[in-house]
TrEMBL record:
Keywords: Signal. It holds the Pfam family Peripla_BP_4. InterPro entries: Peripla_BP_I, SBP_2_dom, TAT_signal. Residues 58-315 form the Periplasmic binding protein domain. Belongs to the bacterial solute-binding protein 2 family. Its main location: other. This is ABC transporter substrate-binding protein. Residues 33-54 are annotated as: Disordered.
Length: 351
């Protein structure tokens, strides 16, 4: 794409964008090559951004896949990149070592990739190397764990942790009202209690429950692991002879939670999960204690690759009037139940 004429330059697109948030990504997007791009954006019927354009190289770095959700992040990014003949996907070795990830990102900067999709192990500790990429003219699509400095990324895309809690809380609240339970026993199995994302999920859950006149009876963290999920659930089941609803904040650790419930033979309550794993959806479909899960889908990595391609090619989103990809994209937390599980199952990840 040319940097001359009425179309904004790549650097202008990179650093001059308006910061607007969008809940969902358009599947089809329209090029900004027209003489009247705003009018074209409003009238486009699906656009043609999926057609081959300028060839671009997209660098990719993420943490090691020691968790089902994290493994799905890399798989989704790779699968999306393969859809485009005009994209060369350049991943580096996944790692949980901060210094190794910094070095890997520096290698992508040296390789002069056209865009970089980066899910940092820690946003604060990788902030400077992301800023280094931006200063070198490489747009960074910050995935999931946000950098504290907005100058360190062109666009952030991720899930809504507070919204996950709200969605779970509304499901639990409505179901308890339907059952006519006035003073329910509600237990919550958290992820890692000290993480802001865990705290945001808990706050959203509590806020939604409050609108029904309910509150959490007991809460314990399970470290996002199957083993700890099993132990924590067993402890909660032993401590509460009656439970009306259980919210588990992570479907990966939910494998252990469900095992503890089945081992205890408890069936008097219903459970809601979180993240949207395939095994959780299969449990929902089977009609057991797990009735629903709220999404925090790793498909966001595929969307991040699509966004990086658009930015590198100087394109925008077809359903928006603006010329540029938004600065922030927060994905909706959707509630998966037995009624709609077949639609969501293809997007589920394996725990």
């Amino acid at each position: 794409m040319s940097d001359t004429g009425s179309v904004p330059s790549r650097r202008g697109l990179l650093f001059g964008g308006a910061a607007i948030a969008a809940g969902t990504l358009a599947a089809g997007c329209t090029s900004n090559e027209e003489k009247e791009p705003a009018a074209a954006a409003q009238t486009a019927g699906g656009g043609d951004n999926d057609k081959p354009g300028k060839h671009v190289t997209i660098g990719f770095s993420a943490p090691a896949a020691d968790h089902g959700w994290l493994a799905a992040i890399t798989k989704n990014a790779q699968a999306q990149a393969k859809r485009y003949s005009d994209v060369t996907f350049k991943p580096v070795e996944p790692t949980n070592d901060i210094n190794q990830q910094i070095s890997a990102v520096e290698s992508l900067i040296s390789a002069k990739v056209d865009a970089l999709v980066l899910q940092p192990n820690d946003g604060g500790q990788l902030n400077q190397v992301a800023r280094k990429a931006m200063d070198a003219g490489i747009p960074v699509v910050n995935l999931d764990r946000v950098f504290p400095d907005k100058l360190s990324y062109r666009t952030w895309i991720g899930g809504d942790n507070y919204g996950m809690g709200v969605a779970a809380g509304h499901y639990v609240g409505r179901r308890l009202k339907e059952k006519g339970i006035a003073k329910p026993v509600i237990v919550e199995v958290q992820g890692i209690a000290t993480l802001p994302l865990t705290q945001e999920r808990s706050k959203g859950f509590a806020d939604a429950l409050k609108s029904y006149g309910f509150s959490v009876t007991a809460r314990q963290d399970a470290k996002f692991t199957v083993e700890t999920g099993n132990q924590v659930a067993a402890n909660l089941l032993q401590a509460h002879k009656r439970i009306d609803a259980l919210w588990n904040q992570d479907d990966d650790q939910g494998v252990g939670v469900l095992a503890a419930i089945k081992q205890a033979g408890r069936k008097e309550f219903f459970m809601v999960g979180a993240a949207g794993s395939a095994n959780a959806m299969r449990e929902i479909k089977s009609g057991g204690v797990l009735e629903a899960t709220v999404t925090y889908s790793p498909t966001m990595a595929g969307s991040a690759v699509r966004v990086a391609r658009l930015i590198a090619q100087g394109k925008g989103l077809s359903d928006l009037v603006e010329l540029q990809v938004p600065q922030s994209l927060t994905l909706a937390s959707e509630t998966v139940t037995k009624q709609n599980v077949d639609r969501y199952l293809p997007l589920g990840f394996e725990s």
